[in-house]
Amino acid sequence: MKKIQILWLSTLFMMSCSGGNEKKTTSVTETTEEIISTEIPKIVKISIEGDDMMRYNLDKIEVNTGQTVELTLTHTGQMSALTMGHNWILLASGTDKTAFGMAAMSAKDQGYVPQDMKGNVIAATKVIGGGESTSITFDAPAPGYYEFICSFPRSLWSDEWQFRSASLNNILILSLSHEKINIIDPLCL
Predict the structure, then answer these.
(1) Which residue of 30, 69, 143, 169 has the smallest Cβ count within 10 Å?
(2) Ordered mean pLDDT values, 10 residues apiece, the chain (189 residues)
(3) What is the rounded CA–CA span in Å between residue 120 and residue 1?
(4) What sign has the CA pseudo-torsion 110, 111, 115, 116?
């Protein structure tokens, strides 16, 4: 009787392990991962517009430290450079923009960039009137907060704009070691 029980258990075990005559298929699912490039372009092109209402269309510009910045300023208004001119000036960190603006009012012949404060200017465009554009190229400065202004006298008390520099880790989802600069413009002087 023991032999029959052992034989019966062995048969039952073999049947449960074999799974019968059913064929099992295993599907292989391919997965692909999207690779995100961490390479930062060497050149960044920025377009900013000023209008007859003493406003820029951008209040913040972000670029990476060390990038070459190609900035184009377009005056979308209709007034001339004599009545409502616009320029774009990136000030060094810590520059007193009010003092700069006051000095700029008497620097018409220098494009409203006071010569004794040129050391406070990282980059500057010429003054343009309605329908005109101008471009400049400069290297993005070290990380930090920078202000950009329009030093044309009638713009002195307009909106605020800034240029800020910080690590990409603090600004973007990507975790990179590159440094990010945000240009924030505090006033169109």
Answers:
(1) 30
(2) 52 51 51 64 94 88 89 96 92 89 91 95 96 96 87 61 36 29 46
(3) 104
(4) positive
